[in-house]
Predict the 3D structure of the following.
Amino acid sequence: MSVRRQLSRQWVPIVGGSCDVRMGEDAIMSASKVFVDSVSRPGICLIVARDGEDAELLDELRRQATDAGFSCDVCELEPPLRTFDAAARLAHALREIGATADDLCVAVGDADLISVASYVCGAWCQGMSVVAVPLDELGLLEGALVPRALDVDGAQGMLFVRPCVKHVVIDYGRVLGGLDDESSRRARVLMAGTSLASSEKEFSTLWDRAEQIMADDGATLCAQLMDTAKARGKLAASSAAAVRASLGYGRSFANACQVLMPNAPYSGLLAEGMRFCARISVAQGKLPLDDMLAIDELLDALGITTIECDVNQEELVEAFRRERLLRSRRLMLEIPLAIGRIRLSTVEDGMLREHLGAWCVVHRRQGV
């Protein structure tokens, strides 16, 4: 994989401000400056990571923090991470070392790890500085910039996490995985969904880059990753609730399917949700047929193929109802009205049942 060696820097909008994202090969080797820039004066630094994380990486980050003048400790959290229990363990670690609002937390890992660090540190002493070191694409897109919501008593994504990461250090060599990795596939689906929620220009740019991305061109992938990060940050920071909700494009359907197909890759389910919502919009007379086909083609070009299952219509209808009513009293779906405009809309019960039934038939496993 060919990747540029120079360190690039971008300011990405987030809720309530902006985030300084620095990307480059061996970017971690210059992390000490980022650590110093994130606080008024070096004091205590807590490095938080998933239990069993690369010891060499943690040692290097500890060295970077120590060289910058911090007194450094490491906290390793056992999964599951996006829970109250994990948040409580992290809070206990902060209290144990005497961390204050003037100190620093370095969150190293995936989206779940960075999200729980954002939840705790954003509230710790009314907010302490966090530097995120994502180890995959989702750590940036769904961890640092638009954190994942925490699970509560088995219900996924119930507790909103306000983004508080103001500095991100991304090492190309550690973040970019293989094209077949689930994290990479899911990142590509998020790229598609974000472009569809943003503008025709974002959509066209991703369309033009899709072939190079699937050819494993690291420079193109990194450029798209940064563009998607900026677009997601802008959508999440919008003052309009309808625009912020567009980040959930395809998730209602995907979450409902996940209950019935727990072993299916979420990347595939999320892509199916996007395709499904586009078809509902066409049936409602809102989205042009050509735009629906363009959405299908973009997902195909990014290597996200359709899935097979043996779910029946009634199971899926009930799962969808439970998913939506778990978070809102209104039964609504993320509908693309045009490329660049996605809104939550109501769907008639008859139309919803018809399309869910058709989806089950089309995606039925051969021989079932």
Remarks:
- The first helix runs from residue 31 to 37.
